[in-house]
């Protein structure tokens, strides 16, 4: 792991085509560096060192002819110079295994791990005249082991159909833990039509920032993520404060303390947009090859998780739709059966009533026609009969027009007997 980040590149630089898994791993972890340095005297003046030592500690800081504590003061603060003092004083070598060391300070500080040995240098008389450092960096091995474990855990979560938010949140925290430059991860999910991006996860970004970008459109110049989604290719913004893509979001990014954003589109196997994967930094910064490889590895993992989620969601929707259709069909069949039964009951009742009326009419047909009104007999009406009235219960009577009309108005089931057409005509034309 080198001490200095690359200088910022063009604001909208993009990565090349898809990389193989092997290439991604090589760019993520590289190869372990063997470092060598030779120090002279009790002050441990740097006399000579190999290229790996200077690359690791920083070419502009580690210089020959200067004491180590002067050009690399962080080594003294962490006790490494005191260890050299002990080796110089006792003449006994010291060996450390997988020892953590922080190189640089402030925003340039980087964590590394080494297996190393301090060997005493001796003069012709056997006296100790200096120290030799021989070491092998183990940072890459540690990170590779951690990455493989975390990645395997994410794949297992996807396989057992863990909730998408749980998988994405775990992925974001994993990446933030693997990187030493204070990266903040965000995943946005595309709407089905691919025109807007919704909040997926961003465990380390402030809530007000996540709310501000939730639902942003996809399009050219709409931040890093909106542009990456539109272009279907990575978009690197090294300095948010001076980038035209961030005009509409510069203030909220400033309040969130964000200075750089590298966004990679998450694409399905058919090329459709699933979302974006973004890596934010609090200082202007361009990505190294290892950063881009990390983004590619986890963008692929995110695509797998989102596609699996959409498949399961689609299955659930289809199953719910099928169940609803089945319920609706069952209810329709039951309603049709009920209506049919009710119709049959009404038809049966109507047939029975019609039979009763016919029977009543037949029974009355044989009776002789009375000479005076039967309907007004109670009040002593002696007017000649003009009309025969019957009802649905089979009761019938003859009456004059006045009392027959009174019966028709007041008895709901009363009607003029059909066979008495002459009486009906006389009633209508009276």
From TrEMBL:
Domain of life of the native organism: Bacteria
InterPro entries in the record: GAF (IPR003018), GAF-like_dom_sf (IPR029016)
Domain GAF: 150-316
Pfam families on file: GAF_2 (PF13185)
Protein name: GAF domain-containing protein
Gene source species: Kineosporia succinea
């Amino acid at each position: 792991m080198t001490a200095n980040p690359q200088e910022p590149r063009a604001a909208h630089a993009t990565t090349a085509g898809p990389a193989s898994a092997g290439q991604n791993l090589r760019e993520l972890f590289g190869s372990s560096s063997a470092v060598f340095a030779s120090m002279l005297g009790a002050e441990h003046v740097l006399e000579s060192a190999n290229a790996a030592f200077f690359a690791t500690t920083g070419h502009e800081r580690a210089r020959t002819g200067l004491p180590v504590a002067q050009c690399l003061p962080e080594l003294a603060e962490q006790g490494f110079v005191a260890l050299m003092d002990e080796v110089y004083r006792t003449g006994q070598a010291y060996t450390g295994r997988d020892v953590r060391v922080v190189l640089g300070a402030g925003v340039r500080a980087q964590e590394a791990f080494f297996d190393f040995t301090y060997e005493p240098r001796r003069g012709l008389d056997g006296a100790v005249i200096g120290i030799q450092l021989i070491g092998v960096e183990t940072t890459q091995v540690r990170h590779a082991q951690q990455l493989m474990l975390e990645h395997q855990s994410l794949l297992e979560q996807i396989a057992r159909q863990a909730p998408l938010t749980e998988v994405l949140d775990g992925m974001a925290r994993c990446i933030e833990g693997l990187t030493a430059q204070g990266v903040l991860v965000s995943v946005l999910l595309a709407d089905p039509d691919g025109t807007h991006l919704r909040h997926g996860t961003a465990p380390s970004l402030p809530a007000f920032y996540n709310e501000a970008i939730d639902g942003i459109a996809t399009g050219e110049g709409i931040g890093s993520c909106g542009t990456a989604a539109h272009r279907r290719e990575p978009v690197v913004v090294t300095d948010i404060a001076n980038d035209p893509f961030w005009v509409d979001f510069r203030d909220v990014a400033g309040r969130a303390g964000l200075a750089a954003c590298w966004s990679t589109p998450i694409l399905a196997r058919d090329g459709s947009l699933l979302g974006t994967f973004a890596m934010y930094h609090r200082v202007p910064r361009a990505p190294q090859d290892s950063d881009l490889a990390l983004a590619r590895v986890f963008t692929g993992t995110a695509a797998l998780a989102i596609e699996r989620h959409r498949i399961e969601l689609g299955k659930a929707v289809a199953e719910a739709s099928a169940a609803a259709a089945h319920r609706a069909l069952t209810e329709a069949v039951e309603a049709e059966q009920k209506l049919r039964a009710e119709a049959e009951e009404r038809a049966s009742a109507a047939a029975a009533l019609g039979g009763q009326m016919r029977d009543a009419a037949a029974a009355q047909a044989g009776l002789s026609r009375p000479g005076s009104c039967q309907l007004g007999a109670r009040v002593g009406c002696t007017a000649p009969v003009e009309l025969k009235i019957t009802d649905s219960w089979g009761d019938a009577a003859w009456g004059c027009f006045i009392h027959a009309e009174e019966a028709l108005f007041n008895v709901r089931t009363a009607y003029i007997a059909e066979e008495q057409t002459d009486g009906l005509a006389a009633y209508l034309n009276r």
